[in-house]
From TrEMBL:
Keyword Transport attached: no
Protein name, per record: LysR family transcriptional regulator
CDD domains for the chain: PBP2_LTTR_like_3
Cited Pfam families: HTH_1 (PF00126), LysR_substrate (PF03466)
InterPro entries documented for this protein: LysR_HTH_N, LysR_subst-bd, WH-like_DNA-bd_sf, WH_DNA-bd_sf
Organism the protein comes from: Tessaracoccus rhinocerotis
Amino acid sequence: MELQQLRYVLAIARTGSFTRAAGECFVVQSALSHQIKVLERELGLTLFARTSRRVELTAAGEAFLPGARACLEAAERAVVDAAAAAGHVRGRLVIGLIPTVTAVDVPAALSRFRAAHPEVGVSVRGGGSTRSIELIRAGEMDVAFLGLAASDPPKGVARRQLRRARLVAVLPEGHRLAPRRRLRLADLADEAFADFPAGTPGRAQSDGGFAAAGLHREVAFEAMAVDLVLDLIRAGLAIALLPPGVVPEGEGLVTVAVADGPERVEYLAWSDFNPSPAARAFIEVLGEGAPDER
């Protein structure tokens, strides 16, 4: 059994076509078909049911696929690890990115990483902190920037604290509270809020702050996009509690400190079991922050 044969199997399963798989693998279809037949003969199994118009995995093919994928991933990791041991970082770096990163200039960090390790391909995935933690633990993401309530540090991953800050009130210009230099949550309780969807870590920070203060608030608008939240505030439809670094100066917005506002912590997280060489290299490029934690 050869690794290239496994690549052909995965390509056919993914594309549902010997022709498309051959094109994806840069090989003539006759050669690909021959290698699949050789593999099936060696295994004593039929992996694909096929006609001139249709290709499907058999039950044996379905059972074979996860092992084939794991085998290829292990082979690729072996090459990457060997290269890293020789001082050459290769492979792929998958980064999780929340929409409210303020502790790190991410484009600048990626520029430094690319200059130091040009053979590493980088994939950036947007999303929430909870999902990124799940993907790191599943081995599907290398590192992630997280934003969590101070009372809820990430679990099951290695982490480095990047920044701790109290959320600020974001108000439209002309709001009755805009001239104030400092507010309390009680001053905001009767306002309509724009916030992240219920159940997300970004929402939990504000929900927890108001609950701890024994206050109720109305969240009139929910959105994952920070730009949309800010537009709702500019339009005078709502206010919000946000990290100060995500709010542009001017542009119809005013930020006011909230003395008893919730604290938010930004982290860099990665696997606490077996981080990839690319993950270790990215952590090194970011430099030393607060002590590493688990």
